[in-house]
Automatic annotation (TrEMBL):
Native source species: Marinomonas spartinae
MF annotations from Gene Ontology: pyridoxal phosphate binding
UniProt record similarity statement: Belongs to the pyridoxal phosphate-binding protein YggS/PROSC family.
Xref: PANTHER family: PROLINE SYNTHETASE CO-TRANSCRIBED BACTERIAL HOMOLOG PROTEIN (PTHR10146), PYRIDOXAL PHOSPHATE HOMEOSTASIS PROTEIN (PTHR10146:SF14)
Cofactor requirement: pyridoxal 5'-phosphate
Protein name: Pyridoxal phosphate homeostasis protein
Alphabetical UniProt keywords: Pyridoxal phosphate
Domain of life: Bacteria
C-alpha cells in the first residue's frame, strides 16, 4: 500500500474530471477521509502533500488532532453526526464541520468555540434523497438554517454538504444532485464566503464534479481497507 501513489492517482482522476466537465483546474479539493486509519497513514499522506483530513468519530478525531499537532497546516474536517454532549470538543479542535443540521448543535458549536480561535467553518448538511436514516435538513428548510448559522458569531458558513443514496447510473445521480447544486449556486452568488459544495465520494466522483462539487471525500482509494498497516 503506497499512500503517495494512491493520492497521485486520485488527484489525476479529479483533474481529468475537472477537464471533462470544463471546471477550472484545482477547483475541486480533496478531503482525505482518515477515519479508522492509524496516525502513520495520516503522516504518510501529509508528507505526500495532503492537508485536508476528514474524521467521523469524535473521540478518534480529538485524539488524532492532539497527536499530530506538529503537522503544520493540517486541516481537520468533522464529517460525522454530532451529539450534543460532544459538541464542545469538536468546537475546540476542528477547523471545519460539515454536518450542521440542527439549531441546537449550531448554537452550541458557536457558544463553545474558543475566543482565541478563528471562526469554525461549517457546512449545512442537506438530505437530498429523503432517506429517513440519513441526517440533514430538507431543501425547504435551508433558508431558515442559513439565516440561523449566519447569525451565530463564531461560525462561518462555507456551504452545503450531502450524502445522497446511491443511484443506478451517473445521469440519475446528477438528477438527485441538481436541486442541491442550484441551491448552492444561489447562496454563493449572494455571499462571497460561501464557496464549498461538499458532495462526491469514490462511487460518484464523476456525477459530483459534473454537478459543481468543490470538495470530494475519498478514503479507501487513498488509505486502503480498514486494516491498513
Amino acid at each position: 500500500m503506497n499512500i503517495e501513489t494512491n493520492l497521485s492517482l486520485v488527484g489525476e482522476q479529479i483533474a481529468q474530471l475537472e477537464r471533462q466537465y470544463q471546471r477550472n483546474a484545482g477547483s475541486v479539493r480533496l478531503l482525505a477521509v482518515s477515519k479508522t486509519k492509524p496516525l502513520e497513514a495520516i503522516r504518510a499522506a501529509y508528507q505526500a502533500g495532503q492537508r485536508l483530513f476528514g474524521e467521523n468519530y469524535v473521540q478518534e478525531a480529538v485524539e488524532k488532532h492532539s497527536a499530530l499537532t506538529d503537522l503544520v497546516g493540517i486541516e481537520w474536517h468533522f464529517i460525522g453526526p454530532i451529539q450534543s454532549n460532544k459538541s464542545r470538543v469538536i468546537a475546540q479542535t476542528m477547523d471545519w464541520v460539515h454536518t450542521i443540521d440542527r439549531e441546537k448543535i449550531a448554537r452550541r458549536l458557536s457558544e463553545q468555540r474558543p475566543d482565541d480561535m478563528p471562526k469554525l467553518n461549517v457546512c449545512i448538511q442537506v438530505n437530498i434523497s429523503g432517506e429517513e436514516s440519513k441526517s440533514g435538513i430538507s431543501l425547504e428548510s435551508l433558508p431558515e438554517m442559513v439565516s440561523l448559522v449566519k447569525s451565530l458569531p463564531n461560525l462561518q458558513l462555507r456551504g452545503l454538504m450531502a450524502i445522497p443514496a446511491p443511484q443506478e447510473d451517473e445521469a440519475k445521480q446528477m438528477a438527485v444532485y441538481r436541486p442541491l447544486s442550484q441551491a448552492y449556486l444561489e447562496l454563493a452568488s449572494s455571499d462571497s464566503m460561501i464557496d464549498t459544495l461538499s458532495i462526491g465520494m469514490s462511487g460518484d466522483l464523476s456525477a459530483a464534479i459534473a454537478s459543481g462539487s468543490t470538495m470530494v471525500r475519498v478514503g479507501t482509494a487513498i488509505f486502503g481497507a480498514r486494516d491498513y498497516i
